[in-house]
């Protein structure tokens, strides 16, 4: 039997990427196939199969996605304190497998129950695999950002495959089969991780003291498993009633900040300054995702109602393009952009992380102006150009690449090891707030008339997109303006 490598052996790798990154790449790719496939189906399924109108579907989408990301904070917390990252992955994957098969058994009747399993499962899975990526590198290793860029390409390869395939299978063949794919593909993801588990050495093992009695350790672990299952009825209640969603979102953020403040007592002034900087990035990410995540809500309905099923003469499903275009562009450009950061770094020309975030917002503004511009290509019935719509996703991709993989990397660089899972959870908690606000924005852009024509919907949505473009521009300018202050807080972290 080949012994597990030491932490130094893992981190002292040659070349641009450690081999363990490729293993995490594969595991995350298949999990994201399920996640983005599910995300891409949600609004369309609820509008066409559950009978929700556009406004209700947007609000429900925002609630579901908010809970998905909010539970990453909880999953990261329990990984830091009890389970470790590896066991958290196992448990999260198992719950997501159950969720997919539950919905497949009866999509209309068991939809929300299956969604609750997926929410809790993603909470245990998502933040912890990202944290494991960061732990493959020594502090100060300039290859970390490029590593997260490659990892992000894996995320989007899964999103591309799942985003296009699952909504197409659901709309054209069978919703049962589409949701069953979630369970089947998550099994593949879990097997991939189990197969490579030994190569990670001590990365992701339980943080509990090694001298702790085995029976006590087991008790804590079982308590986490049982406790997460006992929350299912509560999650179901909150997901199906958006009033409870509001209460939860008003509560979870302050609680998370209060807990972080408690943990900060243990760290030095420099470490705490870096954590404050991390919170600045987290705050701006909320704004970014609130706009970006129109992709799963209003843009999904826009594609359903207002886009030609024609791309330069090729017949293609507009919802498939909405779900997959961004991922395709990320796959094509994330690794080259990561290598560009490395090339610029060697020449002392790489922009700092704050400026990268600011550029992300400027590109976000340009993308939403492009979404708005589709109104100029519409026919008399309100049906517009799929090509211009796709161009907007091309632009937004570069905004995302300036923010999301950089943010993942920053959470591991700015956070002390004892709270890395927590801070990664808070990064995704920011996404939860972004998703929540995205649902509210999408609902606000929806036409109040249930009998609205495609032309009326076109005007309602494009007006909203023009406003989002202005707000994104303002956020980008503000972030670049305060970059010197944020860099001081980062204490030398680039």
Model description:
The structure is a single chain. The relative contact order is 0.16. Helices cover about 80% and strands about 0% of the residues. It is globular. It has one domain (about 5-490): Up-down Bundle (Growth Hormone, Chain: A). Helix 5 (about 145-170) crosses helix 15 (about 405-415) and helix 10 packs across helix 18. It is mainly α. The chain is built from 18 helices and 2 strands.
Task: Describe the SSE topology.
Layout: H1 7-11, H2 19-48, H3 54-105, H4 107-134, H5 144-172, H6 175-196, H7 214-230, H8 232-240, H9 242-263, H10 269-292, H11 298-306, E1 310-311, E2 314-315, H12 318-346, H13 353-373, H14 386-401, H15 404-414, H16 420-445, H17 454-481, H18 483-490
Antiparallel strand pairs: 1-2
Helix pairs in contact: 2-3, 2-4, 2-5, 2-6, 3-4, 3-6, 3-7, 3-9, 3-16, 4-8, 4-16, 5-6, 5-12, 5-15, 8-9, 9-16, 10-13, 10-15, 10-16, 10-17, 10-18, 11-12, 11-17, 12-14, 13-14, 13-17, 15-16, 16-17
Quick summary:
By secondary structure, the chain is an all-alpha fold. The protein has helices at residues 7-11, 19-48, 54-105, 107-134, 144-172, 175-196, 214-230, 232-240, 242-263, 269-292, 298-306, 318-346, 353-373, 386-401, 404-414, 420-445, 454-481, 483-490, and strands spanning 310-311, 314-315.
CATH superfamily placement: MFS general substrate transporter like domains
How far apart are the first and last residues' alpha carbons, in Å? Answer: 41 Å
Number of helices: 18
Instruction: Give me the CATH architecture, please.
Output: Up-down Bundle
Shape: globular
């Amino acid at each position: 039997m080949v012994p597990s490598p030491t932490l130094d052996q893992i981190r002292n790798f040659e070349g641009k990427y450690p081999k363990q990154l490729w293993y995490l790449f594969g595991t995350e790719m298949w999990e994201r196939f399920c996640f983005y496939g599910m995300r891409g189906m949600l609004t369309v399924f609820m509008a066409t199969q559950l009978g929700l109108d556009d406004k209700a579907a947007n609000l429900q989408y925002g609630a579901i996605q908010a809970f998905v990301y909010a539970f990453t904070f909880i999953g990261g917390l329990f990984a830091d304190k009890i389970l470790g990252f590896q066991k958290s992955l196992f448990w999260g994957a198992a719950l997501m497998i159950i969720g997919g098969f539950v919905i497949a058994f009866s999509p209309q009747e068991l939809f929300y129950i299956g969604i609750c399993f997926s929410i809790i499962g993603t909470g245990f899975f998502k933040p912890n695999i990202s944290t494991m990526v960061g732990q493959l590198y020594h502090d100060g290793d300039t290859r970390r950002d490029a590593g997260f860029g490659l990892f992000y390409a894996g995320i989007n390869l899964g999103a591309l495959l799942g985003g296009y395939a699952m909504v197409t299978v659901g709309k054209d063949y069978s919703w049962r089969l589409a949701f069953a794919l979630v369970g089947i593909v998550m099994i593949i993801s879990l097997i991939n991780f189990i197969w490579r588990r030994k190569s990670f050495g001590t990365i992701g093992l339980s943080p509990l003291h090694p001298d702790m009695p085995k029976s006590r350790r087991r008790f804590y672990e079982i308590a986490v498993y049982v406790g997460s299952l006992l929350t299912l009825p509560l999650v179901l209640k909150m997901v199906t009633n958006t009033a409870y969603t509001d209460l939860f979102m008003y509560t979870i953020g302050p609680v998370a900040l209060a807990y972080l403040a408690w943990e900060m007592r243990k760290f030095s002034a420099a470490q705490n300054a870096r954590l404050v900087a991390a919170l600045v990035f987290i705050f701006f990410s909320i704004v970014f995702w609130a706009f970006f995540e129109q992709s799963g809500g209003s843009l999904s309905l826009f594609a359903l109602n207002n886009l030609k099923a024609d791309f330069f003469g090729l017949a293609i499903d507009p919802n498939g393009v909405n779900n997959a275009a961004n991922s395709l562009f990320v796959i094509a450009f994330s690794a080259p952009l990561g290598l560009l950061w490395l090339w610029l770094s060697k020449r002392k020309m790489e922009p700092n992380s704050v400026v990268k975030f600011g550029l992300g917002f400027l590109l976000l503004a340009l993308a939403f102006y492009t979404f708005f511009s589709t109104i100029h290509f519409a026919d008399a019935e309100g049906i517009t150009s799929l090509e211009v719509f796709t161009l907007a996703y091309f632009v937004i991709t570069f905004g995302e690449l300036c923010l999301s993989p950089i943010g993942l990397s920053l959470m591991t660089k700015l956070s002390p090891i004892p709270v890395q899972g927590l801070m990664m959870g808070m990064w995704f908690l920011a996404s939860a707030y972004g998703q929540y606000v995205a649902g509210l924005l999408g609902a606000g852009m929806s036409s109040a008339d249930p009998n609205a024509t495609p032309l009326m919907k076109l005007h309602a949505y494009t007006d909203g997109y023009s406003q989002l473009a202005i707000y994104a521009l303002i956020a980008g300018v503000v972030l670049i303006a305060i970059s010197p202050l944020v860099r001081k807080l980062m204490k030398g972290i680039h």
